[in-house]
């Protein structure tokens, strides 16, 4: 689908709120946006670059990267997409001490196109503060998190702030044969959606390893699209390193983001 300017603005605004939910400091200037987090260095970044020329961009990138390291004690990354200016900043970054580390994909879809794709039917509940441990347990297993205490603190902060950024957490369960299939059994899949700025941002879709390849992740995505539809949002989007999975659910790649890490 075509990525309109309004949708792009919605995605950018949601991203800033999502980062703030992890206790990031997000500062948006006309020519650059900056994210700082001394406790979770993976979020330290420069993005939405809009400089008039390469010389100015080089000077400012170096300046802000140095400030981030001074403030947080960690190196910064540059998130570079096709909307950054000037063009061909990727040719400049190696000379500034950055290397290409990874690529993420932002995919978008009409909400109604994703809502209708429900391959299975599993119980999905919205998780509030009282159920956060079950959500964090499932997330940690789904994404192979080894630093559990570190991860628990990270998500606990997000739960505390979810009401301020319209960020909702959902947990899906494998039906329990012991209970006749009418009550939730084992946690199987997690997901989030943020609905603050005119588009539904779907994040953290992950399935516990022993429940993979059973359609649970697809069901969670479709469910979250339904949540977006109930909020009268016409579009949903995801940010992922696995675009093929979401293309099967009705999404199309809107743009790529190259993650350049400071060496």
UniProtKB/TrEMBL annotation:
Coiled coil start-end: none
Protein name: N-acetyltransferase domain-containing protein
Residue intervals of the N-acetyltransferase domain: 122-263
Gene Ontology terms, MF aspect: acyltransferase activity, transferring groups other than amino-acyl groups
